[in-house]
Amino acid sequence: MGVRKTIAVIRGDGIGPEIVGEALRVLDTVANCYEHTFVYDDVDMGGVAIDKWGDPLPQEMLEKCLRSDSVLLGAVGGRKWDGVPGDKRPEKGLLRLRAGMGVYSNNRPAKIWKQLADASPLKREIVEKGIDFMIVRELTGGIYFGTHRTEETDGQLCATDVLRYTEREIERIGRIGFETARKRRGRLCSVEKSNVLDSSRLWKKVLHGLAAEYPDVELTDMLVDNCAMQIVKDPSQFDVIVTENMFGDILSDEASMITGSIGMIPSSSLGDGTRGLYEPIHGSAPDIAGLDVANPIGTILSAGMLLRYSFGLDAEADEVERAVERVLDEGYRTADILGDGVGCQKIGCREMGTRIAQAVRDAKG
Ligand code: IPM
Ligand code: MG
């Protein structure tokens, strides 16, 4: 018996509509092959919502997401909306969605695909030691959600952004870190800036307070600047990194790059229930929008994570991952993962989606 689920779909801006279109093609194929019904509910968010409704996330759009079983997102933002005030920017819609859905735990895998080892900017001997770690990023607190203010003091402008964390916020993300490590190789690295910041000292204290409950997990600490260096020096040392919102934003871009392309990395954002927000970690890339050259794989893998973590459809999620693997094995590449191109064929966004969907269909026979 198949399942029936509603998915709120946020195509967003820039390349968003193209990459989401391909992910839906793959989801439709999964639905077909496994007799599921996925009902898509379109949601406007980001620049497109500003243009249409004067608000990056109108309340009724948030409510559509809260009524859905899960949410799939492409990307939001673009230079067109650079001039709009901070609280009306496209990105603000995304932040309000994350807060509104209560998805405090953002999981971003950094894994090298063997087919793409040449696309990594790291030296081969570093890549060969293996890259397979997970960044668990706190997503609804910290400096992103503290007070933001710009005022005039003594004849000059002065801007403030507050980085604030409560023990409770740190504890719940800390637990996700330990639990994630427990399911992997049992090593958790807590990343902070406790040599300077109070919020980081509290972070470290809370993490160590939890350690006794997870005796099977080895907890280590690392300062964020050192972590940025270690990620390029020897990424094989990491299993799970748990860190606060802004550090996680920065480190996850770095981590994605060493795996070959930011276009490959999916993410899940979850709170206490099963409704999640799934999005590739890259942005809306307005410079290549509409050209059919974007890489849809990060979004397709996000849809795979949605099947696994929100709907419990592990076999289907495995199938999506294997389909990506197969298409890469066959040598098909979008421009961002072409590397030196030897033995590969360059294809566009649409063809990549079509081929992955076809691979899902073929596997099911
Ligand atoms: C990300 C993005 C967002 C973030 C932006 C678009 C607000 O960079 O998901 O990593 O900073 O969280
Ligand atoms: Mg980011």
Could you characterize the architecture of this molecule?
The radius of gyration is 20 Å and the shape is globular. With 365 residues, it is of the alpha/beta class. α1 packs parallel to α12, α8 runs parallel beside α9 and α11 crosses α12. It starts with a strand and ends with a helix. The chain folds into two domains: 217 residues, Isopropylmalate Dehydrogenase, CATH 3.40.718; 138 residues, 3-Layer(aba) Sandwich (Isopropylmalate Dehydrogenase), CATH 3.40.718.10. It has twelve helices and 14 strands. The longest helix is centred in the first third of the chain and has 19 residues. The strands form three sheets. A ten-stranded mixed β-sheet has the order 2-1-3-12-11-4-5-10-8-9, with helices on both faces. Strands 6-7 form a two-stranded antiparallel sheet. It has a two-stranded parallel sheet with strand order 13-14.
